[in-house]
Amino acid sequence: MNYPGGYVIEGNMSTPGGIQEGKVTVMRYDRTVHLDADFATAVARTRDALAAQGFGILTEIDVTATLKAKLDHDMEDYVILGACNPPLARRALDADRSIGLLLPCNVVVRREGARTAVQALDPNTMVALTELDALRPVAEEATRRLDAALAALASTDPAA
What we know:
Layout: E1 19-21, E2 24-26, E3 30-35, H1 39-52, E4 56-62, H2 63-71, E5 78-84, H3 86-95, E6 106-112, E7 115-121, H4 124-130, H5 136-155
Antiparallel strand pairs: 1-2, 3-7, 4-5, 5-6, 6-7
Helix pairs in contact: 1-5, 3-5, 4-5
């Protein structure tokens, strides 16, 4: 999705089946922005942008530290923020109690070369995988809110 200022939120799967490339179906499930901010700044700004859209952070998993501690494996900075918008979560759970498996709660902030990627699960994944029309309005609102958070991050990035 293109936004003013020339930045792009990458990824989508607005229609079931994903994006068609030749004869192979590629299902994109992410919504991503890339920032020129350092990792710690990107994490802090991501928390703020999500909060502005009604998402609280319930959990934070430092994947880098966990893999180092458990496996002595070195990797780039990588954090998973467990974000929740309670009204949206309730609406989705009222439509399907098993939908907790697919709620777009995880937001990844990870170092990608000289930049930092911020990624969220595309809420339309819930609809595409379950084919439950009752989830469509929830997915649409979650998409608007996540896109607004990602757009806010991109618009305040020094390179934007």
